[in-house]
Amino acid sequence: MKRIFFIDLDNTIYFTGQNEEQLMGELYRFLENLDLGISQADFQLAKQEMLRTPFLKVAKKYRFNEKVMPEVISYLENRSVTQPLKPSDDYHYIKSLTGRKFIVTAGFPKQQLSKVKMLGIANDFEEVHVVDVSSTNKKERFEMLIDQHQLNKDDILIIGDDAESEIKFGLELGITTFLLDPENLHPNAESTFKGTDLSSLHAVAGQSDYL
Ligand SMILES: [Mg+2]
């Protein structure tokens, strides 16, 4: 049975698309008032990608004007989500797991912590870890958690939607993984388990008495 859970936040516990205005409205308006040096069409595409991809990656891909980037980054570092967010309809499958739960998420700390607060889920987790991907990654954080809490890898299940981050790193560490892939975007991705929703989570964790 799995009794320790490392859980991703964005698009695992809640879906960005269902909370677009609360999450992105202000950021979109902030960006619209800057000279990003890109076409309106590219800006629309970039906005869609920001919903599922870290901002800095999107900025690089669409070649946002480098002159405005310090201003954008300082805005992102200081912003927090101030309106309630809605957890996914499947969140109860996570909440009802028996054991120790840790959120391990990547991004700007103030923003990620405010999301946890606005989702109203802070009390469901033992710890919330925000990983700064410019200096480290989730793999190092998983190792740190295992070390710090003297965890047994066999007891751990990693749950997330990013095949190239938490799932890949989990497998590299020999940890069981569950890839949430609602739109079947990663049919060939490696993961111990996969689902288009979280309804099999309890069976995967060996806690199948929950219906
Ligand atoms: Mg995610």
Automatic annotation (TrEMBL):
It comes from the Bacteria. Keywords: Hydrolase, Magnesium. The keyword Cytoplasm does not apply. It holds the Pfam family Hydrolase. InterPro entries: HAD-like_hydrolase, HAD-like_sf, HAD_sf. GO terms for molecular function: hydrolase activity. PANTHER family: N-ACYLNEURAMINATE-9-PHOSPHATASE. This is Putative hydrolase of the HAD superfamily. It comes from Pedobacter suwonensis.
